[in-house]
Amino acid sequence: MISLSEFASKRLLNEYGLPITKEFLAKDAEEAVKVANSLGYPVVAKLCGETIQHKTELNGVRLNLQNRTELEVAIAELEDISGDNHEFLIAEQVHGKREFIAGYHIDDDFGPVLMFGLGGIFTEVLSDVNFRLIPCERYDMELMINEIKSTRLLGSFRGEEEVSLQDLILALESIAACGLGNPDILSIDVNPLIISKSKPVAVDALVVKS
Amino acid sequence: MKTIRELESLFNPKGVVVIGASTHPGKFGFVALHNILSAEFRGPVYATNPQKPKILGIQTHEKILDIPVGKADFAMICISPDKIIDVLPELAQIGIKTAFVVSGGFSETGAKGQALERQLIAKADECGILVAGPNGQGIVSTPANLCSQIVSPYPPRGNVSIASQSGNILSAIMNLSRVSNVGIARAISIGNQGHISLADYLDYFSQDSETAVAIIYVEGIPDGRKFYESLRTTASKKPVIVIRGGSTESGALAAASHTGSLASDHSIFAAMVKQAGAILVEGVQNAFELAATFSVQPLPNGKNVVVMTTAGGWGVLTADAIANTSLTLVPLPDDLKDSIDSLLPPRWSKNNPVDLAGGETRDTIPDLLSLLLEHECVDSLIFLGLGIQGNVARSYFESPYANEGTDRMAKFHATQEERYAMSIITAINKYGKPVLASSELSIADPSNLGPKTLRDHGVLCYRSPLIAVQCLSHITNFAAIRNS
Asked: Which residue in A2, B28, B250, B428 has a CA-CA distance of 20 to 30 Å to B312?
């Protein structure tokens, strides 16, 4: 099994139409600052690499960096954590209160399966996810989305707009297309898929190949 | 994939041979023959036994080839597993098209048994015989008066068909059928699915005119996608109720990704059933009661349910249960309230549930039932309180103080119960809307004329209104999907 880096995973998914964060790789603080200048602050800095799958557990994520000083401090901290083997992902800070998870995997019994559900840090605890065998009709995707328990999050929520079902379905279809189009892909995780205004953006992703 | 034509002689054989018939009532070879004969199979029945005894009035044959050619097309095989392969060519010679292998000792026992099962299937293919099982309890097909099984009782005829990976679950459903008088069409214990898979049986049920609703009990599925496709095709034609037993650990992938770890075996299975348009139900009794609902009740045109009750508390609980489903406890329009006013004293509930508050006289219940069902705002009805008057009748009939007066009253009450039940049956047919009656007396006193009359007509009297609400909710959702 090979895990693609976060950067490579999102690039691949983006080729199939999944909206992802604007982001670039940087080798050091100097490159990171250049990237941040082009993206505009605030930014996010993350450890990135094929060997780094659980960034949060490694404490390898720095969110909402407001300026050059904060970014440089963050990079210095991440360099300490990662040792020699490091690359940094500098991405725009996406704003949105609602986090979902979407995924793809090949089930032992039923073959390719798409998943959608409640994302963020409580994903495993609440386990509010739903599945569809794919390929499937758009109608099935719509049901998959609407059958989760947290459907109220899809409507207007705490001052945020109603989620565009159309865009959410397109995002799920792009994940499905990526999985089905690459038989060597065993699984895809997109977590979180953050709703920014009304549209989903993949903020983190992991593609695992055989 | 097996075609309906290929499976036809399994469910509608023209004649049956029992291979390995026994004189000993404790042996499968006796039980199978006994059950086939006692259910009065409509075609010729033959049996083999090396000693050629007469068993249950049937002269057995020493050799298969002694049986006339072309008279039987189905064989019930009750001999030891290692001998079965050898008899298949002779069975083919006398015209056998399908066989049920009761014997165990195949893939369920390990590597050696797996090899034997592969040989069995290969030989069956060579001989042009389709083999059900092995390691199953048998098959029931009431349209053919066929009870070719080694265990459970023969159910009344009906339109519910079952394919089960467990023989005992199959027996349980047939027992429920017998006690409730909601009948069965086909029932098969599918065993190891060596030759004919669950998907094949579903395909048969989907095309079978005797089957209106199917129940399947599933543990493991050899070919998940094929099963899904068959389930989807069948569920697009008729309701399929799925009971799932057991679950397996998800694969090694689970550790590597969120998707893998969240995708427990059962959640994928549950989503798959939903996607296919079938209904996943927990437990055998719930599955049977839902099948019984589909079997007897018309599909509702919408979500609006009215509860008619002579039992206040049950009405409240039923209203609560309805609130937790997608059903609507329809508010009564003014014209309907006015009509009800003309039938009931002013103390009635003036709302849904329509609580009669003890205001009924001789014809109130049948009249009110018609009034409610006639109205366009009502798609379905739940009736509570059946059996209450019959219960009074019973206490009078059994009373040490019984006299002419109590006898007359008891007879009136009992007759009323019968009328109520008949008015429910008539209303279902007349208005084409579901009417679900619930009474714990269907269990507490099966002789009560309310529940008994429903039972005599093959209509399920629900053991609890909460079950009735669940069943109504399922058939209403099914109807909505079908109409969309």
From this structure: B428
Q: Is A101 in CB contact (< 8 Å) with chain B?
A: yes
Does residue A20 register a pLDDT over 50? yes
* Dihedral over Cα of B149, B154, B155, B157: its sign: positive
Q: Regarding beta strands B328-329 and B138-141, do their DSSP bridges make them parallel or antiparallel, or are they unpaired?
A: unpaired
Q: Do domains B151-296 and B298-483 have the same CATH topology?
A: yes
**Rounded Cα–Cα distance for residues B355 and B309 (Å):** 5
CATH number corresponding to B151-296: 3.40.50.261
Q: Which residue from A108, A136, A187 is facing B257, i.e. has the nearest CB?
A: A187
Query: Between A and B, how many CB-CB pairs are < 8 A?
Result: 84
User: Measured between CB atoms, does A134 come within 8 Å of chain B?
Assistant: no
Q: Does A140 touch chain B (CB under 8 A)?
A: yes
pLDDT at position B251:
38
CB pair distance less than 8 Å for A109 and B268: yes
Domain A22-92 class, CATH top level: alpha beta
Residues of chain A with CATH 3.30.1490.20: 22-92
Phi, psi of A34 (to 5 degrees): -60, -45
Mean pLDDT in consecutive groups of 10 residues from the start of chain B, 484 residues: 77 98 95 97 97 96 97 97 96 97 91 94 96 95 97 92 95 96 97 93 96 94 91 97 73 47 77 96 96 98 97 91 97 97 93 90 92 98 95 94 95 95 97 97 95 98 97 97 86
Where are chain B's structural domains?
Answer: 1-135, 151-296, 298-483
Q: Check A140 against B260: CB less than 8 A apart.
A: no
Residues of A in contact with B250 (CB under 8 A): 108
Beta bridge partners of A187: A105, A208
Phi, psi of B299 (to 5 degrees): -75, 135
**Among B283, B356, B342, CA closest to B314:** B356
pLDDT at position B370: 97
Question: Domain B298-483 has what CATH class?
Answer: alpha beta
A111, A113, A191: residue with CB nearest B258: A191
From B67, B60, B148, B146, select the one nearest B100 (Cα to Cα): B148
Region for A59 from its dihedrals, namely left if φ exceeds 0, alpha if ψ lies in -120 to 50, beta otherwise: left
Give the B-side interface with A, CB within 8 Å. Answer: 221, 224-225, 228, 250-251, 253, 256-263, 265, 267-269, 271-272, 274-275
Q: Report residue B315 as tokens.
A: 């009405």
Best of A99, A107, A139 to disrupt the B interface (most B CBs within 10 Å) is A107
Superfamily of domain covering B1-135 = NAD(P)-binding Rossmann-like Domain (3.40.50.720)
* A-chain residues near B268 (CB < 8 A): 107, 109-110, 113, 131
Phi, psi dihedrals of residue A187, rounded to the nearest 5°: -155, 155
pLDDT at B256: 45
Nearest by CB to B275, from A124, A136, A188: name it.
A136
3-state secondary structure of B291: helix
Query: What pLDDT does B255 receive?
Result: 40
Which of A133, A143, A189 has its CB closest to that of B272? A133
The hierarchical CATH code for the domain A98-209 is: 3.30.470.20
Tell me what ipTM this predicted complex has. Answer: 0.87
